[in-house]
Design a protein that fits this description.
Blueprint: E1 12-16, H1 41-54, E2 62-64, E3 73-75, E4 90-93, E5 99-104, E6 108-114, E7 119-125, H2 127-132, H3 134-144, E8 153-156, E9 166-167, H4 173-178, E10 186-188, E11 195-197, H5 199-209, E12 214-217, H6 232-237, E13 246-252
Parallel strand pairs: 2-5, 3-4, 8-12
Antiparallel strand pairs: 1-13, 4-7, 5-13, 6-7, 6-8, 9-11, 10-11
């Protein structure tokens, strides 16, 4: 588990979990937390129970959404069964003892906390969700619950690194349409017309632009570091049939 110092404070429990420490095997070895994978559901449930235990919570207190690469946010009052998971990519809560979990396998997990207001949030920021405003939507939901931008701390977890994220000629267009300043997140790749995209840098910029000054990035390249992380792109490049999902979670202490 990776901890961001900026969130490691009294009243907050959190972690960016690696693939290490679970019971799954094969392509899913070992801490696969995605029920949407082809892994055995019982093993995924055990892995998630281990994550909750690390946060000193019961397994049913860890919730995740059915993620759709959107800017949809839900405000969590009570845990739900996995079959009832809402379609969204971000969550906020003021309820102590509920762990907000986001799944990723190259996309950027982002965890948020305003300890003074007693509000935490989490979002799944792939390129599409980040471009469409999932970070801003999470911050807006936190502010509705009493959080303030000058108090919110945000940490971006492990995701695909710039050196690993080659994109095609058409990819930069929507980013450049949003702002010409986004050109800084693209550098030429070895293939003509292709670029390398800095997803973490882009998410960090959106946080700063929205007024968040207490920001951290854990580092970690999910594609390059196979022993630590699952990666959708790595599985695709290898023509593997499936891949595991990492989880990152945050909770107010009960």
């Amino acid at each position: 588990m990776i901890v961001a110092d900026i969130l490691d404070t009294s009243g907050i429990r959190h972690g960016f979990f690696t693939r290490i420490g679970g019971v799954s095997a094969g392509l899913f070895s070992s801490l696969n937390c995605g029920f949407g994978s082809g892994d055995e559901a019982a093993k995924v449930a055990e892995n998630r129970a281990r994550v909750a235990e690390t946060l000193d919570l019961d397994a049913e207190r860890l919730v995740t959404c059915y993620q759709i690469h959107s800017a949809e946010i839900v405000e969590v009052e009570t845990p739900w069964r996995r079959e009832e998971a809402p379609r969204a990519d971000g969550m906020v809560t003021t309820v102590p003892g509920i762990a907000l979990g986001v799944l990723a396998a190259d996309c950027a997990p982002v965890l948020f906390a305003d300890r003074e207001a007693g509000v935490v949030g989490a979002c799944h920021a792939g390129w599409r969700g980040a471009l469409n405003g999932v970070v801003e939507a999470t911050l807006a939901a936190m502010r509705r619950r009493g959080a303030r931008l000058d108090r919110i701390a945000a940490a971006v977890g492990p995701c695909i690194g710039k050196a690993s994220y080659e994109v095609g000629p058409e990819f930069p267009a929507p980013f450049l349409a949003e702002s010409s300043e986004n050109a800084q997140f693209f550098v030429p790749a070895t293939r003509t017309g292709h670029s390398l995209f800095d997803l973490a840098g882009y998410v960090l910029r959106r946080l700063r632009r929205d007024g968040i000054t207490r920001i951290a990035h854990t580092g970690g390249d999910t594609l390059a570091e196979e022993d630590r992380f699952f990666s959708y792109r790595r599985a695709t490049l290898r023509h593997e049939r499936d891949y595991g999902r990492l989880i990152s979670a945050i909770a107010l202490e009960p």
